[in-house]
Design brief:
This protein is an all-alpha fold. About 55% of the residues lie in helices and about 0% in strands. It is globular, with a radius of gyration of 16 Å. Keywords: Capsid protein, Virion.
Length: about 90
């Protein structure tokens, strides 16, 4: 297995949180008052938000809606998240 860069590791963690949120969503659709399910969803949502903030700070916006600069369109100034880089 190839060694992942810090950027790739961070992206994989974000993907894992996204998967956990989709699964929790499906569970909560049929168990809407489950406290454990709600806590699980909240925990993974907070973790994903934290990881996305880290990614945005280090590598630029992960999606177009995360472009936070009013001075330039950052989305096109760095490699797209799915492109490999030299880091």
């Amino acid at each position: 297995m190839p060694i992942l860069s810090e950027k790739e590791r961070l992206l994989r963690k974000i993907q894992a949180c996204s998967f956990a949120l989709v699964e929790a969503n499906l569970y909560l659709d049929s168990h809407p008052t489950c406290r454990d399910g709600l806590a699980y969803f909240a925990r993974h949502k907070a973790e994903k938000e934290k990881l996305i903030a880290q990614y945005n700070e280090k590598y630029g916006p992960l999606t177009i809606t995360q472009n936070n600069s009013s001075k330039k369109w950052e989305w096109v100034t760095s490699p797209f998240p799915w492109e490999r880089s030299a880091d």
